[in-house]
Write a structure and sequence with these properties.
heterotrimer; A mainly alpha; B mainly alpha; C mainly alpha; A: mainly alpha; globular; C: 3 helices; elongated
């Protein structure tokens, strides 16, 4: 009997392996050895730094199928794995002070966050349907628990239960969808599936139904209309650092799997193009319109995240076109970077202004007068809002530019028009935040938490600086993050 | 022919149990209906050449998982239900429509455009526990490891959710002293 | 032999009943049981397709679905127990902290 693992396999998944070992060790250390919870936070942050270095070390290598074709280390996955490692680091920086000041800090939080990031990394690497299902659960389960971390607060518990029930519902759709895809192609291995489809041996009707159900399951995770109902409640009820972490990373993980499946495996089910079109259009319209009515900043950001899922999905509509597919992937990756930066930054500001957990300092009026007392923070928040709208020269502008270019090239003029119009609508509620900060008098109370403040300022600086100087080279980098199977 | 009879019997039983779950007024009955459904499915697995899965289905699913469900239902005393209406009543027609569409499309796909692939009789050693375990520990080693991490995470998560509970209780006790 | 499509049709029916039950029931425990029914229907489809292809990877998928379901149940039931201690209810309509 042969040993089923080679060093090559391990090398392909080095960041993930490192994080699993590190998190498991930390779990034990936290129980038996570490006195200060803060130490656990620093050690897990250190773990993400090492994982980031390991991920960067994987860049530029030839694509490699590992573990008997279960996962792939291609440029696309390495790009996202590095982004996930960075997001994990930011997630911990944002969370530590918040958890400590609200008396809900536990070492397990950081361990759960690390396991969740491992799941997300695996989502970017999947080369077999069984891995999609496992990775999805591995990143979701810790998120359910982290959402309920502020218990016994009722809103946090309720958010966790809602997220859990809808997440479980979504995995039901995923499982059945995967079963139908398996039935249509007689394999769960994605590279084999591509061969079967190209040989014309797949049952297209069954494949379409299966792909639609898988899309439903992933739609819950990336929060597109009509699978978005949970988003405002969950983002509202969860502790703010968890909401920010979810808004940024869970969406990335969902899109990672969605792009790999649709661009690489499912172009043959072009029948689903109108479905994707409708999902994208509905998300852009409903997300932005509903955000206007919000007075709570957490709910506003939740609806805005739904709208942004719609923008990204609008480029994915071009998945069936073999020439535009790679361009759509690059545009979405670029947009994800812009979205993640602004999301982490904006949620960081929310964390700084939230006075007591889930109470006070969460209404838009609480941001009045921020520019007088904390000009740096107000300017950073303004940058994030402008980036969300897509105003030049922020990164968000280039993100929307590349997205809509793909949409137009694919010939979906109507969809691009909806995107531009809804961006104008979104300017109303994003600029209202800016206006409150700069025009209205007020006495906002802000936490002095240097790590969170530094994170916010760094995100703002990157959003602005990358937009001014490096947008095209970042896009070039994104175009090199090609999806491949060997 | 006898296989067809068995399929019809067990299929009808599984469907009836599922409908029982849908309409049950009592959470204990609902759980028992689900157990019945799982047992019927286990028999169907046997007819499909999956003896190992049939046993796992009975011991893990119908056994461990559903016992846990029943345990929680009874622990919480949540077996009788206030039915129904309420602010989300609009979901009912939606659900009916959704159900109709789903069954309609799927049966169209399956019967009108059915896959007419001939079923070859499976090989002698098809899906024996030995064959399954060899594949599991060779080709599926990574998913197996990920599943073990997943179970660790689940254990940790459940522990976190319950442990805070104990701490709060202790605080409550102290304040009442 | 019973044709695969018969099994798939049965699985589709069970899946639909499960999905409808998730949408119309109000008791969180029963909603969650309905999700288990959906997973079971997927498992049936997997096993049926696996026999048709004479391929055991479908059966191994079921093995993993059962593992995942067990992991989910541990977290989910812990959550339901926790929330019951706060609210003394498992009715989804009692969850109204987060509206507006």
């Amino acid at each position: 009997m042969t040993v089923p693992v080679t060093w090559q396999d391990v090398a392909a998944l080095l960041p993930e392996f490192f994080l699993v070992v590190w998190a498991s060790a930390l779990l034990l250390l936290d129980v038996f050895w570490i006195r200060e919870k803060r130490t656990t936070a620093w050690l897990s942050a250190l773990g993400f730094v090492v994982a980031l270095v390991l991920a960067v070390g994987q860049m530029g290598r030839a694509p490699l199928l590992a573990f008997r074709g279960m996962v792939i280390a291609d440029a696309f996955s390495v790009f996202l794995v590095a982004l996930f490692a960075l997001s994990g680091l930011v997630g911990i920086l944002l969370a530590q002070d918040y958890l400590a000041r609200n008396g809900i800090e536990r070492g397990e939080f950081y361990v759960l966050l690390m396991f969740s990031v491992v799941g997300m990394m695996l989502m970017a690497r999947v080369a077999d349907l069984v891995m999609i299902f496992l990775a999805l659960e591995l990143f979701s389960l810790p998120l359910y628990v982290m959402t309920g971390f502020a218990r016994p607060r009722a809103d946090s518990e309720e958010a966790a239960l809602k997220y859990f029930l809808l997440g479980a519902f979504a995995s039901g759709f995923m499982a059945f969808g995967i079963a139908l895809v398996y039935g249509a192609t007689s394999t769960t291995s994605l590279p084999h599936m591509v061969d079967v489809i190209q040989a014309g041996e797949a049952d297209l009707a069954l494949l379409t139904a299966g792909a639609a159900l898988v899309l439903t399951g992933l739609g819950f995770k990336i929060a597109t209309v009509p699978f978005h109902m949970w988003t405002p409640d969950v983002y509202h009820g969860a502790p703010s650092p968890v909401s920010g972490f979810m808004a940024a990373t869970a969406k990335m993980a969902g899109f990672a799997a969605l792009l790999r499946l649709f661009v690489l495996v499912f172009p043959v089910v072009a029948d689903l193009t109108p479905v994707l079109w409708a999902l994208a259009a509905l998300s852009m319209v409903l997300g932005n319109v509903a955000a206007i009515a919000q007075r709570n900043i957490k709910r506003l950001l939740a609806y805005s995240s739904i709208a942004h899922a719609g923008y990204m999905l609008s480029a994915a509509v071009a998945f069936a076109d073999p020439h535009l597919g790679p361009q759509a992937v690059a545009a979405i990756l670029f947009y994800l970077v812009a979205y993640v930066l602004a999301t982490f930054g904006a949620w960081g500001v929310v964390i700084l202004l939230e006075r007591r957990i889930g109470q006070e300092g969460l209404l838009l009026e609480d941001y009045a007068g921020l520019s007088r007392q904390y000009p740096g923070l107000a300017a950073a928040m303004a940058v994030f809002m402008l980036s969300f709208i897509g105003v030049p020269p922020t990164l968000g502008f280039f993100g929307k530019f590349y997205l809509f270019r793909v949409v137009l090239d694919a010939g979906f003029v109507g969809l691009a028009l909806i995107g531009v119009l809804t961006s104008l609508v979104s300017a109303y509620y994003y600029l209202r935040v800016v206006m409150l900060m700069y025009m209205k008098p007020g006495e906002p109370i802000v936490r002095r938490e240097p790590r969170v403040q530094a994170t916010v300022l760094a995100a703002a600086a990157l959003t602005l600086f990358l937009g001014l100087t490096a947008a095209s080279s970042l896009y070039a980098w994104a175009t090199e993050a090609i999806l491949r199977f060997g | 022919m006898s296989l067809m009879v068995l399929f019809v019997l067990m299929g009808a039983l599984a469907l009836a149990a599922a409908l029982g779950l849908l309409f049950a007024r009592n959470a204990v009955y609902a759980a028992l209906f689900l157990v019945l459904n799982m047992l019927a499915l286990a028999v169907l697995y046997l007819t499909l050449g999956a003896p190992f899965l049939a046993m796992v289905q009975i011991t893990v699913y119908a056994g461990a998982v559903m016992v846990l469900f029943l345990f929680v239902v009874m622990l919480l005393g949540a077996e009788t239900l206030r039915e129904e209406g309420g602010p989300i009543a609009w979901q009912r027609p939606l659900a009916a429509i959704l159900g109709g569409v789903l069954v309609g499309t799927l049966s169209y796909i399956l019967f009108v455009e059915a896959t007419t692939g001939k079923i070859l009789p499976p090989p002698e050693d098809y899906a024996t526990p030995y064959a399954l375990s060899v594949k599991l520990f060779q080709d599926y080693l990574l998913p197996f490891e990920v599943a073990s991490v997943l179970l660790l995470v689940a254990m940790l998560g459940a522990l976190v959710l319950v442990q805070i509970e104990r701490k709060r209780r202790r605080n409550d006790d102290q304040t009442s002293d | 032999m019973v044709p695969t499509s018969f099994y798939i049709f049965l699985a589709a029916l069970l899946f639909t009943i499960g999905a409808v039950a998730v949408l119309v029931r109000r008791n969180t425990l029963i909603i969650y049981m309905a999700v288990e029914l959906m997973l079971n229907s997927a498992n049936l489809a997997f096993v049926a397709f696996a026999r048709q292809f004479g391929d055991i990877s479908g059966q191994l998928f079921v093995f993993f679905v059962i593992t995942i379901a067990a992991a989910e149940v541990a977290v989910g039931l812990a959550l339901i127990v926790t929330i019951f201690h706060t609210k003394h209810s498992v009715d989804i309509d009692a969850m109204h902290e987060l509206k507006g």
